[in-house]
């Protein structure tokens, strides 16, 4: 059977482990970085490196990078018009490429705080400050030349992101009784693998751990575990949202590696 080609746009905190996982799944993997100095690292991991910058315009061999079956897009979103225009150019390039499927990484920050659980990925109240991100999703979602599945990740932890380091001792944290929405790196990878293996295209998923402890409880425990003094938490409850992962569990039959945020704190080391 011919190997599938998987292109990862942005080999950073999430993109690099994703690329490595698909190398291990016997894909031919292309990975982009903005600096040529990272090429050696990618090569050592079995990833074909490309230097590609998407800012006011696209720089790099984007045409060859897009000679692929599946494109994984994970880039920090910026509101500036040149950034948006550059990605409109990218969409046109994808239309002319061999790409048939796109996995687009977005954020649960597109949802407004409705003081309730959010289960519906289609009918919801947009966070007005994130409307541009929602429109950015639709650049890909609404294109008929390729199939796009969107994953809206909650706050990302794992790898180099130890939640015990999120708040310093002298920090005062508001709304500390609000439930938190986080997801571990290993589950991010597992969900992407499940979507591609099961060919779940043209779908939007919310991705968060199953449990939602309060901000005060979780970050106090995480900080103390590192032997540090926790921040000052103002124990009040204002606006919040709870991100449900039920669609992932039922539609993908995905079993979370770290469903319980408090129980999984033991994996983090100083």
From TrEMBL:
<dbReference type="InterPro" id="IPR051783">
    <property type="entry name" value="NAD(P)-dependent_oxidoreduct"/>
</dbReference>
<protein>
    <submittedName>
        <fullName>Nucleoside-diphosphate-sugar epimerase</fullName>
    </submittedName>
</protein>
<dbReference type="InterPro" id="IPR036291">
    <property type="entry name" value="NAD(P)-bd_dom_sf"/>
</dbReference>
